[in-house]
Amino acid sequence: MNFSKEIIQWYFQNKRDLPWRKTKDPYRIWLSEIMLQQTRVAQGLPYYEKFTEAFPTVYDLANAEESQVLKLWQGLGYYSRARNLHYTAKDIVENYNGQFPSTYKALLKLKGVGDYTASAIASICFDEVAPVVDGNVYRVLSRYFDIDTPINSTEGIKKFKELAFEVVDHDDPANFNQAIMEFGAVQCKPQNPYCIICPLHESCEGLKNQRVDMLPVKLKKTKVKKRWFNYLVVVSNASETLLEKRKGKGIWQGLYQFPLLETETSIETIADYQSEIEEIIKIKDFSVTKFNEKEMIHKLSHQHLYTTFWIVETTDSLKNGISLQEIRTYPVPILIGNFIEEFNF
């Protein structure tokens, strides 16, 4: 049986109708691949459509303000992807005359472009034999060949990349790469894969050895860190509030939030933090009430944020105050965005 031909044939019969499959424009392929990292297609598709409408070319993206890029990205998560996207667009315009590099090795030099994205662009846009290896591909290969080497180990990453190169269709790398990713997403799913109607079921070693549900193997994740966020939502008599821009290399860099008081643990009352609040918001005359009685738990990949919003009312004028009517124009984390909608400024 020819593994690559079977995968491609399945793809032609079953592929989903997605806009980035109707083009070989490296800009649009790049956009789709960056957006779909750690994001489901159903969630990423509306963002792709918004981005391509707002920024139809790499020049448009390069010329945009970072705040505009982050605002359009809002809710998609992993915001370093958006910042890298913007940086790389500028790099391509300034240093590559607006043209994407046409080889896998050259694409790797772009910020935010790793092995997977470089392989996808090189194969789909330029027909280079550069096999992709993402979560879907790991799953298909580990099950089909019954390999229990952890996919996130150094040995596993090397082993599966070599195997992917062995099975890629050298005559049609573009369709093969899209086919094996689609096959993993639709047919060889993480849970309850359709093994009975799978075109590879007769030669699948994992199925033969009844190990499909055990594969792929992955090393345990890093321990999740707990953090306690207390957002100070200032509301003045002049219908203004305060927002601050997150700095540093931590989560949500470049996005806006309400002034933050981070504590070591959960707090029932904020009265003990009067001096800290005064220092953060630069106001002395205010009253504080808790908005959500139960902490909201916002889960990130390696952090769980136990969050409380505190409404801080004041008659004082605010230095650098922002009109409540403008608050929705700022790029904010989805946690803050959801609160803004619920509070209904």
Automatic annotation (TrEMBL):
Organism: Kordia algicida OT-1
Function: Adenine glycosylase active on G-A mispairs. MutY also corrects error-prone DNA synthesis past GO lesions which are due to the oxidatively damaged form of guanine: 7,8-dihydro-8-oxoguanine (8-oxo-dGTP).
Family matches, as NCBIfam families: mutY
Catalytic activity: Hydrolyzes free adenine bases from 7,8-dihydro-8-oxoguanine:adenine mismatched double-stranded DNA, leaving an apurinic site
Domain HhH-GPD: 35-186
Cofactor(s) for this UniProt protein: [4Fe-4S] cluster
Keyword Iron-sulfur applies: yes
Cofactor binding summary note: Binds 1 [4Fe-4S] cluster.
Keyword Transcription: no
Pfam families to which the protein is assigned, alphabetical: HHH, HhH-GPD, NUDIX_4
Family membership noted in the UniProt record: Belongs to the Nth/MutY family.
Stretches assigned to coiled coil: none
GO molecular function, one term: purine-specific mismatch base pair DNA N-glycosylase activity
Keywords: 4Fe-4S, DNA damage, DNA repair, Glycosidase, Hydrolase, Iron, Iron-sulfur, Metal-binding
Domain of life: Bacteria
EC number: 3.2.2.31
Protein name, as recorded: Adenine DNA glycosylase
Biological process annotations from GO: base-excision repair; mismatch repair
